[in-house]
Structure formats: structure tokens, C-alpha cells
Design brief:
This protein is mainly alpha-helical and 196 residues long. Helix content is 55%, strand content 6%. It binds iron/sulfur cluster.
């Protein structure tokens, strides 16, 4: 599959998810506080390379691929390198449009437990500062309120490219592997064009 097509399919999945999340947020009133981004400071966020292919392609097309590759290759910091702690915007993500699947799911999705019950996956701030709305949301989910289910979205991602969605890595490693995939793709295709 052509890289651009692969990226488009991932972004289509993101668009469908974003629509479901916005409906869930409207139904529950649950929301992130302005300028929060606390969840992005977690040092143990894991992701797949596939969910960062759109970001890696964006870096390549904007001529920043090598600069970012060097940063990701040399960092020992487990905290996401896309995070901008000094941002004064709604959130602290410097590439919000290109954030990963885990970034979109966290806060407004559910996972099914061993009894098949859907349990919300959200942060302690929402659970405490929006406790009433959170409890109403949990009750509504029990009464079939539509909520994005994490493993269902990762299954859809895997169906796009099983190889690039198979393994989870620390987020900066996942972003680096997505960038390696993009750089190798263009190196190969540039070479192919040269050989013609
Ligand atoms: S990509 Fe953006 S939203 Fe995701 S962890 Fe990094 S800073 Fe947070």
C-alpha cells in the first residue's frame, strides 16, 4: 500500500473516533480543563508506530524529518517529545492534529473487563473534579450509552496494517519507528525512480 494511502486510512479512523468522542462528551459533559495536558506527562505511555504514520509523513513533507529523527534517536526522556509544557493553548500537545490513537482514546473511552462490562478509561482529575458527571457517565454506559471502546479501535487500526500495529512501544520509540518507516519508504522510492 502506498504510504499516503496508509496515512489516509489511519486519519479516517481518527476522524470516526473523534466524532464518537465528541458525541460522548456532549452526552456526558465530561471535558479536559483548559491548558491541562497532565496525562501527557505520564512516562509510561505506549503506542504503535502505525498511529504516528500521519505525524511522521507530516514531518517528512514539512522538511523536519531528519531534525526530529535525531531528537528521538538521542533522547533518554520517556515523556512524549511532542509535548510542549510551556504552551498556553487548550492542551499542551504541539501537534494536536497528528496526535496518536492512544492520545485520542485516553479520557473518553472504555475498556471491557473480564466480565464484559465497559469501564471508563479516564484521568483522576476528571474522576474527582467532575465526579457527578463521571458517575452519571458510568451509569449511562451501563445503560448502553455509546462510548468508544479501546480494543475495538486498536483492532480497526491493526486491520489497516497488522505489521505496523502489532507491537506497542514507549511513545517516543513508536514515533521514531514511524519516522524510520517513512524515511525508508522514500529512500526506496527515490532509489526506484532513479533506477528507472
Ligand atoms: S502526542 Fe500529544 S496528546 Fe499524545 S502524548 Fe504526546 S503531547 Fe500528549
Amino acid at each position: 500500500m502506498r504510504l499516503e494511502e496508509l496515512s489516509e486510512q489511519v486519519q479516517d479512523l481518527f476522524s470516526r473516533l473523534d466524532e464518537s468522542i465528541s458525541q460522548f462528551q456532549s452526552a456526558t459533559t465530561l471535558h479536559c480543563g483548559w491548558g491541562c495536558g497532565k496525562c501527557c506527562f505520564k512516562p509510561d505511555i505506549e503506542a504503535t508506530p502505525l498511529e504516528f504514520i500521519p505525524f511522521a509523513l507530516h514531518l517528512y513533507k514539512s522538511g523536519r524529518a531528519d531534525e526530529w529523527y535525531e531528537k528521538l534517536r538521542s533522547t533518554q526522556d520517556p515523556v512524549c517529545m511532542i509535548l510542549n509544557p510551556t504552551s498556553d493553548a487548550q492542551g499542551l500537545c504541539s501537534e494536536y492534529k497528528h496526535r496518536g490513537l492512544i492520545c485520542r482514546l485516553f479520557g473518553y473511552s472504555a475498556r471491557t473487563n473480564k466480565y464484559g462490562k465497559k469501564e471508563m478509561v479516564t484521568c483522576s482529575i476528571i474522576k474527582t473534579e467532575q465526579a457527578d458527571a463521571y458517575q452519571r457517565a458510568e451509569a449511562a454506559i451501563d445503560n448502553e450509552l455509546a462510548v468508544p471502546v479501546m480494543n475495538q479501535y486498536y483492532l480497526q487500526l491493526t486491520s489497516i496494517d497488522p505489521e505496523l500495529a502489532r507491537d506497542f512501544y514507549p511513545i517516543n520509540v513508536a514515533i521514531r519507528k514511524a519516522l524510520e518507516t517513512v524515511l525508508q519508504y522514500y529512500t526506496y522510492h527515490d532509489q526506484e525512480d532513479t533506477d528507472r
